[in-house]
Amino acid sequence: MTLTVIGSFVSPYVRKVLACLELKGLDYAVDPITPFYGNDEFTRLSPLRRIPVLIDGDVVLSDSSVICAYVDEAFGGYALLPEGPRDRARARWFEEFADTRLGDLFIWGLFYQKVVRTRVWDEEPDEERVRRTVEEGAPAALDYLEGELPETGYLFGQVGLADIALASFFINASYAGFTPDADRWPKVARFVAAVTAEPPLEKLMAFEAIQMGATIKGRRQALLDAGAPLTEHSWGEREPRRGMMAL
After folding, report:
1. Is the pTM of this model over 0.85?
2. In-domain check, residue 187
3. Does 112 fall in a domain?
4. Quick one: CA dihedral 54, 60, 65, 66, positive or negative?
5. Rounded (5°) CA angle 47-50-51
6. How far is CA 158 from CA 81, 92, 162, 191, in A?
7. DSSP SS3 for 23
8. Quick one: pLDDT band at residue 240, thresholds 50, 70, 90?
């Protein structure tokens, strides 16, 4: 049975789930809901109005970490987490650090301010929050990662959930004009470049480029023309809801 993912290709949380499905070699289709949109049926599936949502038969999950854990446990093949309780716990920690700290910095401090506010809400970004993110928050987070990431390769051998979770947020930061300085954070810069060059992320980023460059009305057809695995159903393209934390 084909899995269904409701979400936007440019969301780091959706990207994480889709990349993991790619690593697993699973069949899936995407219902490319636009962030901050969604009808009442979407609210029923995702009570917090967040993406991604995974539908697997009668199983409906609406948190990226829960989804990735389910996928790794429910389906065999490629292991998303390393062996052993210590490494598995450490991998989960890096995923949590990415989803919370990097999410706060790179999504709400940069991507939301410089991309979403200008394109969705037709507002000016909060320049003070951007400044604090670039000058204070991001350097502290990158200093931490510089001390944790390996000189070569990935965190636990083969590329996995922790690597994808971390690198995913740097993609959104780059859309807002921020990339790690390779002289100041060489391990971070190398790591992000290596993970984003992996086939699953390269494939997904091609679809993201289309979504970032197309209008909402023309986006679906442009993605279909590029071979994106889209579903027939849509959970609503209407006026955006500011309260929807859908990134």
Report:
1. yes
2. yes
3. yes
4. negative
5. 125
6. 10, 16, 11, 13
7. helix
8. low
